[in-house]
Structures are given as C-alpha cells and as structure tokens.
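Problem: given the chain below (148 residues), write out its structure.
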Amino acid sequence: MKTVKDLLSEKGSAVWSISPKAKVFDALKLMSEKQIGALMVMDDKGGVAGIMTERDYARKIILLGKTSKETAVQEIMTPTDKMYYVKPSNTVEECMVLMTGKHVRHLPVCDEGKFAGLVSIGDVVKSIISEKETLINQLSDYIGGKYL
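Solution.
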C-alpha cells in the first residue's frame, strides 16, 4: 500500500501559499496561473494559518455578495482548527476515505506538527488507479502463465 510519504516523493512536496492578509483576487490569480484548486495560507512566521480553496471562494464570496478584490484571504479561508489533515504514514486509501467522508478535495500533510505538503483528490485518485492497473497487469500475467 502506498503512503502519503510515497505520494509526496513522487509528485514533490512543493506547495503554493499566500498570506492571510492578501486579497482573495490575488489568491485566485495565483491558483489560475498554477492550475491548482487550493493554496496554503501561511502566516508571517511561516506557520500554517489555514487553507483557501475554490470552494471557500464560491461559498464565501460569490454566494454572500462580497468582492474578491476587497476581501482578505483570512476572511474566507478554512482555519487550521477546522482543517482535516494527514500524516506521511497514512495510506493513500485512508486519504480517499477521509476526503470522501468529509467532502474535501485537499489534505495538508503534517509531520510531527510541521507542514510537509499538500495532497489533492486528483493525486489520490491517480495513485489508486496506478496501483490497480499494476495489480491487474500482474494478475493477467499470472493467469496467462507468464510465471510458469
């Protein structure tokens, strides 16, 4: 079973972030440029303050009639005390269960209290499909007599 640590080593642990004081518009612009759906929100000391996702924008800006050019990220982000996260030792399957059960698309990875990366639903699905394809190929080879 593949772990979050394995997943991060394959995809890299680089994560885009933004300040809580930045405007939501700037966060959206960065997400668009990098083709990502979430940004970690980091405080002045480099600690995690929260996460801002496309869902935060849709539900807390558009639906509430606010403007992204006037609203600070800290007003709409999901703060750390409400975030779901995983550890590097968690399996990819555990990530899928958590994401599905809690209806989230991004999971920050924390290693001994320190931020270590971000895993998206796309990362998890891609990893699970890859594992299943490998298993199918091995079983096909076995059934076809390749190992005789």
